[in-house]
Write a structure and sequence with these properties.
Bound molecules: aspartic acid
Largest sheet: 8 strands, mixed
Number of helices: 7
Number of domains: 2
Helix content: 25-40%
Strand content: 15-25%
Strand order of the largest sheet: 2-1-3-4-5-6-9-10
Structural class: alpha/beta
Order of helices and strands: EHEHEHEHEEEEEEEHEHEH
CATH architecture of the largest domain: 3-Layer(aba) Sandwich
Number of strands: 13
Length: 332
């Protein structure tokens, strides 16, 4: 882990009184670069190009709020994220929290799967020193790029003791969201993140950090982190959707491949995006009954929004899948 210079000139010594914040870079649009012909609009950009040091250099003033340590964990488009990344990030956060006198962590991430990583970390980590994920909708050099401000705000939240003990947070567009509530609600709008009916936990702006509510919902299952170097056996948890004409063919194909041993790991659970409050086409239901009989866990969730009540209260389908994957890890 390096304490990297962020500009070419002589660097003023960081104020030793400032909180110490770790910034973990993973890529995403926030680290994206557009071709020269479309730099201003950002059209046709490639995600996950710039290093975390370059992102911080574009957020002037951030060093007045925290002493920063930087670590580039990976540099990817978050569509390509994997459960292995969740474990890697969780270990880095745990190691940072174990150091004396440190404040929080920021994770720069692509917006597409931010909610999955945020919720996985929420399940894996004890509530404690702040862990704040941030992203952007425009690549780094686009006009009005939102990344530098989001990163600046994320560092301020991570450095603030008021953000501790609230679980993993997401900071974007001046709002502070809880990992279990946040989702990407729009593919392109600059304020793409929302927390549904619950709304954000708070706000970060010129007036500083202000929380307006407590995090809600049952505490997530918290499996122990596998030891570094261990190759955890992830379960296979697939998503299927009920829709007009859903005949269950994809479920039967998964079952057949599992039985034949050609699908590895074999199917362990299905998260089914159901219509209405969680209803399923009768033909798909017949295939799901076959899955249940074969020992596959079937969890139906509404395709219109998060679950209401029960074990998965407030979680959307991809987060229910995260939780089932982590439960499988706990059992492995
Ligand atoms: N595809 C990008 C990613 O998730 C989108 C973004 O970051 O806004 O990495």
């Amino acid at each position: 882990m390096q304490d990297t210079p962020m500009h070419d000139g002589p660097r003023p010594a960081p104020d030793p009184q400032l909180p110490r914040v770790l910034v973990l870079g993973t890529g995403g649009t926030i680290a994206g670069v557009a071709p020269q012909s479309s730099t201003a609009t950002g059209a046709g950009y490639t995600a996950g190009v710039l290093g975390v040091e370059q992102l911080l250099a574009a957020a002037p003033g951030v060093q007045q709020h925290a002493r920063l340590q930087l670590l580039q964990v990976c540099n990817i488009d978050s569509k390509d994220a994997s459960p292995g990344l969740w474990l890697q990030l969780a270990r880095e956060v745990q190691a940072w929290r174990a150091r004396p006198g440190v404040a929080g962590c920021v994770i720069t991430h692509g917006s597409d799967t931010l909610e999955e990583t945020a919720y996985a970390l929420d399940c894996l980590l004890e509530p404690g020193a702040p862990v704040v994920l941030t992203a952007s909708m425009l690549p780094a050099a686009a006009l009005s790029a939102d990344g530098p401000r989001n990163l600046f705000d994320a560092v301020r939240v991570a450095a603030d003791p008021a953000a501790a003990g609230r679980g993993v947070l997401c900071v974007a567009h001046g709002r502070v969201h809880a990992a279990r509530d946040v989702s990407k609600e729009h593919p392109a709008r600059i304020d793409a993140f929302g927390s549904g009916e619950r709304g954000p936990l708070g706000f970060i702006g010129a007036g500083g950090l202000r929380f307006t509510r407590q995090a809600a919902g049952p505490a997530p299952a918290r499996p122990a982190l596998p030891a570094p170097g261990a190759q955890p056996a992830w379960a296979r948890v697939e998503l299927v959707c009920s829709h007009a004409g859903a005949d269950g063919a994809s479920v039967r194909a998964l079952l057949a491949a599992s039985r034949a041993g050609t699908l590895q790991p074999p199917l362990q659970a299905l998260v089914v995006l159901g219509t209405g409050g969680g209803t399923v086409h009768e033909q798909l239901q017949a295939a799901l009954d076959e899955a249940t009989a074969a020992g596959v866990r079937v969890q139906v969730v509404p395709r219109t929004g998060p679950c209401e009540g029960g074990e998965f209260d407030g979680l959307n389908a991809v987060k229910v899948r995260v939780q089932l994957l982590l439960q499988g890890l706990a059992l492995a």
